[in-house]
Design goal:
By secondary structure, this protein is of the alpha/beta class. The chain contains 12 helices and 18 strands. Helix 6 runs parallel beside helix 7 and helix 8 runs parallel beside helix 9. The radius of gyration is 22 Å and the shape is globular. The structure holds ligand LLP. The site of ligand LLP has 21 residues, from helix 10 and helix 11.
Length: about 400
């Protein structure tokens, strides 16, 4: 697992907690790894901004030459606000209304459409356009059932057996398919399954089906370790396997297709950390509970997906090891970051850091119980380059009903 050199304790003292820290150097490192690992000139990465929409992060990602995978008109507006060119945004929403289709079309982004209905409705509204289509790769993979997007029962993508229907709708409205996309799931540990999904996608990628094709998009889902004992992606195996499949497809087309990936977790999960403070220790007859100033409103992954997030005691790293439930301040029993976790003794006032807090943590946050979201900072080369303070309770409530 990635280990950070950032002094989180100093940051907690300076900026108060709960505090999200995003280390931008780590984002760059992962991007470089992907580029060198794959070593394909026509590689283009779109960051799945649903993972973390921090504006400074988006600007940084844009400065690296990474595009954006957006899933809602709101995400497109924010990407544009961050300075991303519309040509660098791919729009992969699902279950769009006609109003949303028109709104996004006016913003000039490329649509990646994942149902026959949406292709038809898009074609009726905007014939003669270029589009990408999203297919369901018919593979079930991902670190939890709730984040697997392939397979016969999934709401995502067009079933492979519906391809001909999709192509005839495209023909009817003169839509040119310039991209074919799949996203299999998130946190795919089993590389064989990833490669199977690539195979299933490429099986339909022929010049007869897609004469105007410019790119294939293998989606996100690239694995990152969350547990200290989990291993990183082995590029020595992964990259040649992906590339040999793509090169075979290139041969069919007699040209080099562009290769797109759209990682979220891979770029940002490990770069983020949530610093929280313990305020209440409870000893239920030997069962220790550490109560903190945060909760599942700030980091929902353990509650939503039984996800493991590594936690360290910043204030007492050499304390004697004890076993704790580490819980939040939300009024629900399930408000739990970790159960029966061994950590150096936790005392009231100690700061803890929850690692791998960059992806789907702040962005899935809420104001449940009317508690505001944490402050956020970004660091680059050890220096704090961006700080968004936490909203005060009073300010938050005033703005909540400011037009009422
Ligand atoms: N592309 C598409 C079409 C997606 O739906 C997703 C994620 C991605 C790319 C990026 O996937 P990633 O590289 O981050 O695995 N909230 C869940 C993850 C939900 C993923 C949704 N789609 C979690 O915290 O595990």
């Amino acid at each position: 697992m990635y280990t950070s050199k950032t002094n989180f304790l100093d940051l907690a003292k300076q900026y108060a907690s709960p505090l999200y820290v995003y280390e931008l150097d780590q984002v760059k490192k992962r991007y470089e790894e992907l580029k060198t690992g794959l070593n394909y000139k026509q590689l283009k990465v779109h960051y799945a901004m649903k993972a973390n929409y921090n504006l400074h992060l988006l600007k940084y990602v844009n400065s690296l030459g990474i595009g954006i995978d957006a899933v809602s008109p709101g995400e497109i507006y924010l990407a544009l606000k961050a300075g991303v060119a519309k040509e660098n945004i791919i729009f992969t929403a699902n279950n769009l209304t006609n109003e949303e289709i028109s709104e996004a079309q006016a913003l000039g982004v490329l649509f990646n459409l994942g149902s026959l209905s949406e292709i038809k409705r898009y074609g009726e509204l905007f014939p003669n356009q270029k589009i990408c289509i999203r297919v369901n790769p018919d593979v079930i993979a991902g670190s939890h059932a709730k984040i697997q997007t392939g397979g016969p029962l999934s709401k995502f993508g067009i079933l492979l057996e519906h391809l001909n229907e999709a192509l005839s709708i495209c023909k009817q409205y003169n839509l040119t398919v310039i991209g074919v996309h799949k996203h299999t799931g998130s946190g795919i540990k089993d590389q064989e399954k990833y490669l199977q999904a690539v195979d299933n996608l490429l099986a339909i990628v022929t010049p007869t089906n897609f004469p105007g094709l410019e790119f294939v998009d293998f989606g996100g889902g690239l694995f990152v370790p969350y547990h200290p004992e989990e291993k990183e992606i082995d590029y020595q195996k992964f990259a040649p396997a992906v590339l040999s499949k793509l090169l075979a497809t290139n041969k069919l087309f007699d040209r080099e297709l562009k290769l797109y990936f759209e990682p979220g977790k891979f770029l940002i999960a490990e770069a983020g950390h949530l610093i929280i403070q313990v305020n209440t220790i409870k000893d239920n007859n030997g069962h220790l509970i550490a109560g903190t100033n945060s909760g599942f409103n700030h980091l929902a992954r353990p509650v939503m997906y039984d996800a493991y997030h590594h936690i360290e005691n910043l204030s007492n790293p050499n304390g004697v090891t004890k076993t704790y439930d580490i819980v939040g301040n939300i009024c629900e029993t399930g408000d739990n970051f970790a159960s029966s976790r061994s950590l150096p003794e936790i005392r009231e006032g100690d700061f803890l850091v929850i690692h791998n807090g960059g992806a789907y943590c702040y962005s899935m946050g809420s104001v449940y119980n009317l508690r505001t979201l944490p402050a956020e900072i970004c660091t680059l080369a050890g220096a704090v380059v961006y700080h968004r303070p936490r909203q005060s309770n009073q300010d938050f409530i005033n703005k909540l009903y400011d037009t009422y």
